[in-house]
Amino acid sequence: MLIGSVLTYRLKQISKKIQHTATCRVNDVIVWKTIRKDYTRISQLCYIVNERLSGVIITCFLLDLYFILLQLYKSLKPIESIVEKIYFYISFALLLTRIFCICIFGGEVFEEWKNIRFYLNTVATSAYNLEIERLTYHVATWELSLSGKNFFAISRGLILQMAGAIVAYELVLIQFFPNSS
């Protein structure tokens, strides 16, 4: 979450530079070359971070998914003790909060990449030059997002995908749950 926030902050800085430069219709090649170099450096940093952390990301998501399913399965049988009920609700809320925060903070990198792509497409044709074309090509061909070993990219939509997977797995678990009646 912290690394995603830092990368997002840097991408927002570049995004603001691109937006300001595009709205002012700056045609100076040196300005756009500087922006392109800054973006290239931050995109390389994102890829290095993604290489190093993708194993941790996929492990985090798998463990969170496992514990959510386990807790939902355990909730199928009645809980008598008040302490157990309190523990169940607090731990389940913390698991959901954790997965939600990872998706939101990690997905900000992807959202900011989409903003940069949008701002580049709004550059006026009178200000268009070779450096803008290079930057646009680089942004369009290299998607910036944190991922879990390239199996999935962290985005805001991942929350809904995980919710769908949890519901599907839980329905399978309910089918195999022994009825007490």
Give a short overview.
This protein is mostly helical and 181 residues long.
Architecture overview:
This protein is an all-alpha fold. It has one domain (2-176). The chain has 5 helices and no strands. Helix 1 (2-23) packs antiparallel against helix 2 (29-74) and helix 2 packs parallel to helix 4. The radius of gyration is 22 Å and the shape is elongated. The chain starts with a helix and ends in a 5-residue tail after the last helix. The model has no long low-confidence stretch (mean pLDDT 88).
Reading the helices and strands in chain order gives HHHHH
> Could you give the distance between the termini?
45 Å
Percent strand:
under 5%
Q: Care to count the β-strands?
A: 0
Structural class: mainly alpha
Ranges with pLDDT <50 over ≥5 residues?
Answer: none
Give the key terms.
about 180 residues, 5 helices
Write the topology of this structure.
Layout: H1 2-23, H2 29-74, H3 82-121, H4 130-141, H5 158-176
Helix pairs in contact: 1-2, 1-3, 2-3, 2-4, 2-5, 3-4
